[in-house]
Amino acid sequence: MSVASSQHKHIIYSAIFALTLSACGGGGGGDGAAGTTGITYTGITSQASLTIGNGEEIGTTAYQNGGSTQGLGTVLSSTTEVEQAQANNNPKTAALAKTLLGAINKIQLPTSVDAKRYSRAVVTETDSFPGECGGTASFSISVDDVSGDFSGSFTFSSYCELGDVMNGNLSFSGNININTLAFGTMTMTMTSLTVSTGNDSFTVDGSMSFNPSNSPLAITMDMKLKDNSTEQIFWTENFSLTIVEAFTYEDLSMAGRFYHPDHGYVDITTPTPFHYTGTNEFPYPGVMIATGANGSTTTLTSLSITSYQIDIDEDGDSVIDQTTTGNWSSL
Question: Hey, where are the domains in the chain?
Answer without folding.
Answer: 3-330
